[in-house]
Amino acid sequence: VEHAHFIASGYGGLVVLPLAAARPGAVKALTLVDAAPVIDATGLARLQYRLRREPVYDSRSHAIERLSAYDQKQFPRTEAEEFGYMVDAAYAPKTENGRTRWGPDLRPDYLKRLADLDLSESLTPRWDLFAGFGRTNIMIVQPENSTMVSAQSYADMLSKRRAVPASTRHLSLANQGSTPVLNGKLARAVLEFHHT
Question: Rounded to whole angstroms, how far apart are CA atoms 69 and 120?
Fold first, then answer.
């Protein structure tokens, strides 16, 4: 693939950032959803805590019920259907001993890296990698209740983008937290951005 459009959500933002340095021009357009060169340690600590204690649920509906109870502060106006999308994106049915249950669908190496992070020290900001996207059109999607990226980091990204020749689109999501599901209006906005 010579060049492509990328949509990076949460941790995926840290994965795609080195690509601009390694292969300039490979990223035709980029959407960062709740992702930035600076990840807030508070949000990572919350994620560490949650994944260490994440139970396995008896059914998809039970997972939706528990997720909606847990995430009500980040997603205050989200309906059960939306939490269903979140469950479908982050959980998978697993059958053991003839019993199917729902649990997080995450790669074990990702879980290990996250568990091994020392959050008592600041994480290294990667503004150097973000600068590599100077000629790339970027859409920055900012959930209002994000715990992964601070409001200051979003402001810094937008400020740095003012000095580059490529276009920047900023989309703020009211009543959304870390990390919003890419569907409905958000999916349409992202598709529109990548088709222009």
Answer: 28
pLDDT, tens digit (0-9, with 9 covering 90-100), for 32-81: 999 999 888 888 887 777 777 777 889 999 988 888 887 777 778 777 78
pLDDT digits over 159-168, tens only?
A: 999 989 889 9
* Helix (H) / strand (E) containing 145: strand 137-145
Is residue 6 within 8 A of residue 33, CB to CB? The reply is no
Give the angle 173-178-181 at the CA atoms, nearest 5°: 65
Cβ proximity of 94 and 100 under 8 Å: yes
Question: What is the rounded distance in angstroms from the CA atom of residue 99 to the CA atom of residue 110?
Answer: 26
Spatial distance between the Cα atoms of 47 and 11, rounded to a whole number of angstroms: 11
Tell me the pTM.
0.82
* Closest among 22, 41, 1, 8 to 140, alpha carbons compared: 8
Residue-wise DSSP of 69-129: HHTTTTSTT--HHHHHHHHHHHEEEEEETTEEEEEE---HHHHHHHHH--TTSPPPP-HHH
Map residue 31 onto helix, strand or coil: strand
Torsion 86-35-129-2 (CA) sign:
positive
**Contact of 175 with 145, CB cutoff 8 Å:** yes
